[in-house]
Amino acid sequence: MRLFEGTPWDRPPRCDRCEQLIADCQCPPPPVEYPPPATQTARVGLEKRKKGKWVTTVRGLPPSDNDLPALVTQLKNRCGAGGTISDDILEIQGDHAQRVREILTEVGYRVR
To answer: Which of 25, 81, 92, 109 could form a disulfide with 15 if both were Cys (CB 3.0 to 4.6 A apart)?
Structure first.
């Protein structure tokens, strides 16, 4: 509820770019800017799961500072394997630790 809502001094909120009412605004949302990858460190590891399956994990990348869905998609495509994001950890199916390290280094992340 706005301060003067329902009074003669009521001024509904307007868009800063097109000056239309917020409800009528058609402007696209501003692009999200993430910090450069060189300032972040990714930790690549291997985990053995049930029935002897190996999973390559990438930890240490905060979701607020990265586009994790795009990054996991890139890793999955380049490794030719499946993968997911669970609890802010990127998981790639199989033993792809060396390849994941190379890809993250190409993108610009520091890798441990």
So the answer is: 25
